[in-house]
Amino acid sequence: MSHTSSAVARFTGVVPPVATPLNLDGTVDHASLERLVDHLIESGVHGLFALGSTGETAYFTDDQRVAIARTIVAAAGGRVPVIAGAIELTSTRIAELGRKLSATGVDAIVTTAPLYTLNSATEVGAHFRAIAAGIDVPLWAYDVPVRVHTKLGLDLLMQLAADGTIHGVKDSSGDDVGFRRLIAANNAAGHPLQLLTGHEVVVDAMALAGADGVVPGLANVEAAGYVRLWDAVTRGDWTAARAEQERINSIFEIVFQPRGLSGDATGVGAFKAAMKARGLITTATMASTVETLDDDALERINEILSALDLMPVAS
Amino acid sequence: MSHTSSAVARFTGVVPPVATPLNLDGTVDHASLERLVDHLIESGVHGLFALGSTGETAYFTDDQRVAIARTIVAAAGGRVPVIAGAIELTSTRIAELGRKLSATGVDAIVTTAPLYTLNSATEVGAHFRAIAAGIDVPLWAYDVPVRVHTKLGLDLLMQLAADGTIHGVKDSSGDDVGFRRLIAANNAAGHPLQLLTGHEVVVDAMALAGADGVVPGLANVEAAGYVRLWDAVTRGDWTAARAEQERINSIFEIVFQPRGLSGDATGVGAFKAAMKARGLITTATMASTVETLDDDALERINEILSALDLMPVAS
Amino acid sequence: MSHTSSAVARFTGVVPPVATPLNLDGTVDHASLERLVDHLIESGVHGLFALGSTGETAYFTDDQRVAIARTIVAAAGGRVPVIAGAIELTSTRIAELGRKLSATGVDAIVTTAPLYTLNSATEVGAHFRAIAAGIDVPLWAYDVPVRVHTKLGLDLLMQLAADGTIHGVKDSSGDDVGFRRLIAANNAAGHPLQLLTGHEVVVDAMALAGADGVVPGLANVEAAGYVRLWDAVTRGDWTAARAEQERINSIFEIVFQPRGLSGDATGVGAFKAAMKARGLITTATMASTVETLDDDALERINEILSALDLMPVAS
Amino acid sequence: MSHTSSAVARFTGVVPPVATPLNLDGTVDHASLERLVDHLIESGVHGLFALGSTGETAYFTDDQRVAIARTIVAAAGGRVPVIAGAIELTSTRIAELGRKLSATGVDAIVTTAPLYTLNSATEVGAHFRAIAAGIDVPLWAYDVPVRVHTKLGLDLLMQLAADGTIHGVKDSSGDDVGFRRLIAANNAAGHPLQLLTGHEVVVDAMALAGADGVVPGLANVEAAGYVRLWDAVTRGDWTAARAEQERINSIFEIVFQPRGLSGDATGVGAFKAAMKARGLITTATMASTVETLDDDALERINEILSALDLMPVAS
């Protein structure tokens, strides 16, 4: 096992949550996964987020998760750092999973507040501290109340930053006021946290507000756009950043094409359909028991891609 | 491995969710657990629910869960059937855990809708079907939206009953209208489901409405009362059932004594404190990272128990 | 203005929330309303709840509300007490409306926590106290979080009872545990509050639990059944109460026949459709801007009524 | 009655929701209100939002509301357009109130989805259409799910724009993804809607995303800052906009100083306390029944203002 470096890896800029390609029988398509990782890095992304919600991690066994992390780390080959989601119920279970994932060579672990349980903020703090103490790579916090039904508060996050428990936050909270306050508090404290937004359609705005980077599911479909967007952000060209964001947002409309399906079927399903259409993966198979897009949705997705000259990627 | 019988076990009447006693160092106190199981059965309960929310199952590793189930099954010794919670994120993971638990000899597995994911009712149905196909004991559904944030709908449950996927429902939904409609639909379909309420303070009322039994966390503290209550229900003596329920509800006030703590710290914490006071377990240690009750709360709990002549149980 | 008596009126037993019949042009059909009130009282109900959610009160102007209350009071003619909903945003506005309604001769006013505002429990208490001080008839609290998005807590309600602010509670909270605790606390305090459940399908169970009465929207369709049910409750015949409740619940299935419509269109719409089918009102017109049931839904509703021999009522 | 012009007034740039100063006895302090309006306009704001949430409109009677609107319109004297909130339950009531407010000379009316009722998107659309048909000034939609518990969807808003029902949206939804999509859809449709954000701490970011203006409650405390911020936005100087936003956000921390109070007591209470400290209003009295800030909170608020050289405003 070797992590990218002995120092704490930085996750800033564009850090896509890597989708998990599947074979038609539902097993992980490691060949496509390698190809996808290589494509993302060649497109210029700055890091990789393995086993996130977009990676359908909740649907995989621990053995599958370890295999996925191993493939991503190997394909990355140290070119960019890799952070892996350890999505499980509670701290003891998460630390156990975190150690398995750490052994694959990922540079950091990211996890959420507890699932299923009914905990106080004090207990959620103890949860993150127990996990950090139980793994041998840096820990990040993932704030995604739409899935976890707990919001990580500003005071809690800054305490966990102050005592070295967490090194960054992926914010998918949908609370732009809270995120802006977190940015300000983090700056006032000397920037102990790297703050990434998970809201891929407002990267320009959140970067202006002070985000350190973005975890865009849509980068699985169009990584180059996000890299251009972040380059514009880096050089302070907000007009160019906005223009690229608006182009990207036209692509994002693919996730609104499926009708009557679940959030997971719609979001990841649209990404996988577009990735297949662009030749980035071999099948758009979803993890069991997620529904598959119908032909109408696929047609509308393809129309959007065609209208934007997005298919297929040159291999 | 031997299940109680080759037929589908019945879970009706009083089926307590067995608390998990812990040693001061947080390891499982199997000796107290054996003693607790024996006490419950001697008190007349009709079945045991292992690894439920009251059993703090979400905080334990799979190895701990298997050990807990094994102790409960052994201590029960076939005197009453045992159903075990398989609380995990999604179907593949749940079936994997369910097989481990089934190997301990439990008679049935109970689980919830998926956690963390964003699924449709169709997908939740597929979830239960995949689990039932992946385990070798009967499956029950556990409807607990306060933890899972999904309500299992009437139509879905009756479909899963009709195709033999599930054999019963533990309802902790807090939706008395929905539960009453489920009872009516189940009766109209020939009673394929055994319907248990998780609301321990309205057992008389839910029994009048048609519930087949109850999963009362408070039975860890006072099992005999629930057995008396159910006996009254069985013989149609609703006045006696109500009187016993009201006495039991005075005990239930223990869970409202802790102030400013989480739901898990408060509910299970009060049960464990009272169990320790009654000599049923050795320590009131909570699973990591749940907070412990303060002395004020313990004092108020003891006052309630004393006022009701509830301490200690003769050993 | 004359109230039924100088003492505080009692609202126990069956207290239907009177539907508001409309003409085809959307104006209030006072003739049908008079007829409906007379039918309800002739059927044996014990009180009337004017201007509740089932009465579509939120859709009417203050002038319309006053006219509706006046008609109901006149038609009741002192035979049963009348309580009127004063549904408005905040205390000053509610008291102003309450005085207008009180002037029609209603015996009590019932209202909710504030709407639209973001208040603490302390402020909600002050809200009820300000209203009680601003009207000249007794005040009741209406707990309906599905509409108001605030739950009235046990401690708050018992404080408002202790200081004489409120005389009763209509509970539509869907929280059977909370309602059972409220019953126990009210009994321990000497029964200062009359406690009515709004859950028309579990009247037998809630009566066993200790409810003083029920506010059943469905009584607009089938008042006699609720009166029989309450008679059984009163004489302690729980088996008969349950049998009548189950018969009534078969009728309640009418509210699940409309598909894809709103809660108001579905619930009140089904009641009005059935009332028209039974000859109790002239049209099933809904308040603006609520959608109307389609023919499919009407057909299924009529089938349910026919199967239960419920149409038409002899005039 | 005279509106600012015969054309549809534009509400863009900085449009503060005017606070409602009160005398110690709770009556409206019209002298302070005049002074406040004059101060805001002198500070350069581009429009005024009367009777919004910050204006505590929900707590006032219709007579009080009309008087408040009249004072604001008179004090504005046509220098900037005035839009007035008509916050009421449903369409018939809102239109009735809207006509009263329109008669005071306001240039537009803004309202929300229905309160208290349970409506579908179709019914919410009919609601806005009925209101627009019932008033004689342009209508705006106010999307504030934290108070109304309904989110106005993209499709609905664009339909209401297409048929001329609404002329703009004040977005306080906290859904930055939805707001970004609304901006894109509005641009694609030829910009029929003026889109204002209510999130005063991310104005730079939302302006970059395409917002046409902002309704900042905090502008009651520091209007000049928002005007400078918007000037920077207008000339495309995003770095200056961000710097001003960050300065403003330091002031916004005043709303987090009160502890244990309600949302209304905290937010409006902090604004009023700071306005009084700056000499903009005479008392910080809150509308009945909102709690008052304690001395600790006032001290911390004054410290924040002092540290930022914000007290008092030269009269």
Automatic annotation (TrEMBL), chains A, B, C, D:
It comes from Microbacterium invictum. It comes from the Bacteria. InterPro entries: Aldolase_TIM, DapA-like, Schiff_base-form_aldolases_AS. This is 4-hydroxy-tetrahydrodipicolinate synthase. It holds the Pfam family DHDPS. The active site is at residues 142, 170. Belongs to the DapA family. One of its GO terms (molecular function) is 4-hydroxy-tetrahydrodipicolinate synthase activity. GO terms for biological process: small molecule metabolic process. Its EC number is 4.3.3.7. CDD domains: DHDPS-like (cd00408).
